[in-house]
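Structure (tokenized):
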């Protein structure tokens, strides 16, 4: 499964990727807006938006490029919040 994380803190990027790896997911993390973010997003299975630490412009770009991806919005950008998101995704798969 591929995941794109939009928002969060720069110093947490390594932890976000480690958490994704623990759940057998490939992750791309965008904590800041880049000039070619639209092309870099690709076609992920899930897009996680940390709404507290992301600009409105980044949200618009991520949502417009989402395609068939599930969009999960989370107000906090902690590692525990990301782990909880993955737990909920796994529960949804089992159901």
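Design, position by position:
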């Amino acid at each position: 499964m591929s995941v794109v994380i939009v928002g969060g803190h720069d110093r947490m990027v390594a932890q976000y990727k480690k958490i994704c790896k623990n759940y057998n997911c490939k992750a791309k993390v965008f904590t800041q807006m880049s000039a070619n973010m639209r092309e870099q997003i690709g076609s992920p299975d899930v897009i996680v938006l940390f709404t507290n630490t992301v600009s409105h412009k980044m949200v618009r770009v991520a949502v417009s490029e989402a395609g068939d991806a599930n969009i999960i919005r989370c107000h906090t950008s902690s590692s525990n919040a990301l782990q909880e998101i993955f737990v909920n995704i796994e529960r949804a798969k089992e159901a």
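Reviewer-requested clarification: The chain has four helices and four strands. The first strand starts at residue 2 and ends at 6.
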